[in-house]
Specification:
single chain; Porin; 16-stranded antiparallel barrel
Amino acid sequence: MAILIAAGLASPWAAAQEGALRIDGYLQARAVATERPTAAYTDDGTSFLVRRARVRFTHDVGIARFVVQLDGAASANPIIRDAYVQVPFGPGDTAEKPFCFWAGQFKVPFGYTIPESSRVRLFPERPVGFETTVMGNALFPTVRDRGVRLTYTRAPLQADLAVVNGGGINAPTNDPDNSKDLYGRLEYRFGVVSAVASARVGSQRVGTVDRQRSVWGLGIRVTPLLTGELSAEYAAGLDAVPGRAEPEAWYVQYLYPLNARWKVGARYSAWDPDTENIGVPGAAGEERGPGFVVAYQPDARLRFTGAVDLLRVTADAQRRSATVGVLQTQYAF
């Protein structure tokens, strides 16, 4: 069954039989070992868990597509991860139309790692600071939001513009502060090299005052590079809380296929919740360190992954270890 990828230079519209209903999904079961530097981090130890158990329903009717993706692992009850309608338009056949209008709940268009599917990503989690951190704060903690989006795809260019609530998918159904966030993403490919520039501009109500909340980012990807893939991404911005922080996240990553079944990868990622608090007594939360991954895929549906992130976290005015090790079994259909 087809895998739909909402971002990248490939068109977001794939040809399908009109009126066809497609079902696909994947499950990620894990054994996790974590090391945390102080009592402030509550998930120290070892655990078995189901990280993701997702099923997606896609229905094409020629002029539009309906997509709903459910996740049964994040909570006791299934939750909706994606729920949107895509409407292609412009010159050409349906599969080749350059424009696509989105409405609903979808991944926000920013950089490389945020739109990338957890189903195909080699590392179990995104680089630190983009979706998750040891402290629990990050630039895009829910990855998704609700609103409308316009995509233009005509190789070698892809452009995205989106207007969303700004609170992520954990926010109430109604936008709590009535302000909207604007996303823009522009990707261009030069042979084996692609470059991406992204931005988010918005505001957040703090008390009775609307404060600016923005992020901008740059990225580069080289595929192939010595038969592997090199990616680097940098994002920084201005957060409305706490105290007008200026967060920053970046990573450099290289993935290499040893053969048709084995793949390895290495990356270095860093997160700073406020680049302006250097030297401030009690400042904490900076995270950085290398990560490594090995994956064995004996079949198109089955993949075994082992990964470790050797993070160091600023806590108690010291750099302390915050290592995370993951053994994951994934089945996709």
